[in-house]
């Protein structure tokens, strides 16, 4: 049975994972720039290898975040649909959930393009 409380939790989960995804994307950009800078300056091969490992680990987190965000989005959509079936169609929580669904879907369409 879907409740407003569950909806709020699932909405927050989607927002948190989306924020986490953006954070990892920024981290990859930052680490890639740092790696390129180290290569340009002729850094010690060991330090360069360690930096490349850091960059690789950051890159691995992005697909994981995508999968978790897809799962959280599907969960949020099903909870929203359940609530709408029980005639709970209005309220700030439902509007927030719908906005979050739209934002996350827009994020996925941007990534696919």
UniProtKB/TrEMBL annotation:
Localization: Cytoplasm, Cytoskeleton
Cleavable signal peptide: none
Broad class of where this protein is predominantly found: cytoplasm
Domain of life, source organism: Eukaryota
Coiled-coil intervals: 7-41
InterPro entries, per database record: TBCA, TBCA_sf
Keywords assigned by UniProt, alphabetized: Chaperone, Coiled coil, Cytoplasm, Cytoskeleton, Microtubule
Protein family per UniProt: Belongs to the TBCA family.
Quaternary state and interactors: Supercomplex made of cofactors A to E. Cofactors A and D function by capturing and stabilizing tubulin in a quasi-native conformation. Cofactor E binds to the cofactor D-tubulin complex; interaction with cofactor C then causes the release of tubulin polypeptides that are committed to the native state.
Name under which the protein is recorded: Tubulin-specific chaperone A
Gene: LOC104786617
